[in-house]
Amino acid sequence: MKKDLYPKSQDIAIRHMRAEDIEQLVAQFCFPWSSIEATRKLWQNYYKEHQENIRTVGIVEKGGRIAGYGSLLRRSEYPRFSDIPEINAIWIDEDYRRLGVGKKLIAYLEEMARKEGYKQIGIGVGLYQDYGPAQKLYFQLGYVPDGNGVTYKCQPVKPGEKYPVDDDLILWMVKPL
Ligand SMILES: CC(C)(COP(=O)(O)OP(=O)(O)OC[C@H]1O[C@@H](n2cnc3c(N)ncnc32)[C@H](O)[C@@H]1OP(=O)(O)O)[C@@H](O)C(=O)NCCC(=O)NCCS
Question: How far does the centroid of ligand 1 lie from the alpha carbon of residue 138, in Å?
């Protein structure tokens, strides 16, 4: 087998999603908590939004393999981001983590928003341990809480109420561009 002569984080490319990526994304990123059908539907929907300019999906590629993805979403579900584009659905393949790829992908999406004239960009992050790396990454890149507490299903949580600690419990953060 040919030896990889370059560190993994080099020779990566980030490009816009193409229709033919859908099946590779479904095959590579069908997670245990989802199904092939649901994953295909998700990516078909992301691609439709990509074509309609509602979101732009950035694909991280290395040697023909998809190493990660992330979107710039121009129509956030979070009401306070009505005029703020959101960095959404970021995922780096486990083989390529901790190599600066996530940082590069976010810089790529931020640059896209800057070129479109946005003065601010936002991101939402979960509160439980799986989101620890993302929390550290966003803080390191200069994202700060938007000052409105956390939301559940995009609505502010109410003191004294009970909410499950799941993917819908989110802290929203912003950064000037
Ligand atoms: C979060 C994620 C995108 C980071 O991608 P990555 O390519 O590994 O990130 P980078 O290599 O660019 O890391 C940059 C910084 O993030 C932080 N970080 C990343 N992974 C970390 C980890 N496992 N533990 C602690 N800090 C971490 C560090 O501050 C790191 O800087 P350093 O390496 O100089 O210390 C990746 O872990 C991932 O896909 N996680 C699962 C999906 C997810 O949580 N998505 C975000 C949803 S909001």
Answer: 9
What percentage of the chain exceeds 90 in pLDDT? Answer: 90
- Kindly report the pTM of this predicted structure: 0.94
**3 state DSSP class of 124:** strand
Distance CA 114, CA 108 (A): 10
| Residues 6+ away with beta carbon under 8 Å from 162 | none
Q: Are strands 144-152 and 155-156 parallel, antiparallel or unpaired?
A: antiparallel
Residue 92 CA: nearest ligand 1 atom is: 39
Whether 112 is in the pocket of ligand 1, judged by its Cβ within 6 Å, is: no
Q: Which atom of ligand 1 is nearest to the CA of 99?
A: 11
Ligand 1 contacts CB of residue 167 (under 6 A): no
CA trace torsion 17, 19, 21, 22 (10° rounding): 110
